[in-house]
Amino acid sequence: MAVKNRIAEAGLAGIHDKVIAGQRLDGKDALHLYRCTDILAVGYLANLVRERINGDRTYFIYNQHINYSNICTNLCSFCAFGRRKGDALAYEMSVDEVKEKVRARLDEPIVEIHMVGGIHPDLPFDYYLGLLRGIKEVRPDVHIQAFTCVEIAHLAELYGRSTEQTLTALRQAGLGSLPGGGAEVFSPRIREKTCRDKLSGEDWLEVAQTAHRQGLYTNATMLYGHLETIEERVDHLLALRGAQDDTGGFLAFIPLAFHPRNTALSTLSGPTGIDDLKNIAVARLVLDNFPHIKAYWVMIGPKLAQLALSFGADDMDGTVKEEVITHMAGAETEQAIGSTTLIELIREAGRLPVERTTLYETIAEHGDDGHR
Asked: Which residue among 15, 201, 271, 289 is least packed, with the fewest CB closer than 10 Å?
């Protein structure tokens, strides 16, 4: 009764009834959730959905991040990673250097290589095929999750072929799935202000859905906490939900907290912890057709990620090993967390740690006795 009273006092009784009945929330519901000041009430509703879909299971992966180059023609105002060619902080890695990064961790049980970079003006299409083939030479069994939808559109231009043909060539070279980056906020207003030269939101969705139609899974993201309105956040989530209804290839949604330091938007404060939890919770409630919601510890920190496991999130991402993009924007989190630490963090939050593959196949469940 106390919970029902609190839900009613928060003005969420109607949404609670929909959640209990398994009914889809609409845009007005999403706006109401964002505007609600009772974060515990919103989190309670999100947790109902989280546990309905995933129970106490909380996923993580033993993965390695590689950012092959930060040279980029887009230079989005919210990004501290991208650099013009010739800039003192610009870099690009050769295929051999990428292979060496992979080789240096062969003693670790890494199951996924996560690889993204900037929109490089000069690297040829064969370079990207070489990256994939080179990784597979060193670690034949690893799953390569690489190249955002923005990068795929760029690679199609380099290749001079369709998105479908480009993805086919990349798959033959070793590509396993696409990460969710580059979505930012789909709003044309925001993209005009912050990333004018980047692929449009509509085209981002088209690339993702083209991948889905070929049997490639992808993730999806939303960068929040900069210039966007809550209405634009809701529109973004609804667009993702509609695309998932159509092609069904999104594995997980990852809300990405904006880090302002060293960006052109450095005067902004960025999101608060409450913003972080609310975006995760609202996403879990609105994206009813997404199987997983991530609390990306690199962005929000391990402790808040633990808390997010009771606000709709069921995945903490992975070991990462070397994260560059967020840390160039001033992130003060670690660049890597060991799998033992991730297991402990998940257990401390009262959840069951589940080690997974990229495609959410279970490798091991780590109960209190270590393995079960």
From this structure: 289
Per-residue pLDDT band for 107 (boundaries 50, 70, 90) equals very high
pTM: 0.93
Residue 317's Cβ-count burial label (10 Å; 0-12, 13-18, 19+) is buried
Are 316 and 338 within 8 A, CB to CB? no
Cα–Cα dist 162/211, whole Å: 12
Q: Can you say how many angstroms the Cα of residue 127 is from the centroid of all Cα atoms in its chain?
A: 25
**Alpha carbon of residue 243 to chain centroid:** 16
Question: What is the rounded distance in angstroms from the CA atom of residue 116 to the CA atom of residue 179?
Answer: 8
Show Cβ contacts of residue 95 under 8 Å, excluding neighbours closer than 6 positions.
127, 130, 131, 134
Q: Which of 339, 355, 358, 362 has its CA nearest to residue 144?
A: 358
| CA 263-264-267 angle, 5° bins | 90
The string of DSSP codes covering 115-137 is EE----SS--HHHHHHHHHHHHH
Residues contacting residue 355 through CB under 8 Å, at least 6 positions apart: 59, 60, 61, 62, 339, 362, 363, 364, 365, 366
**Does residue 7 contact residue 16 with C-beta atoms inside 8 Å?**
yes
Do 286 and 30 meet the contact criterion of CB atoms below 8 Å apart? Answer: yes
CB 343 within 8 A of CB 365: no
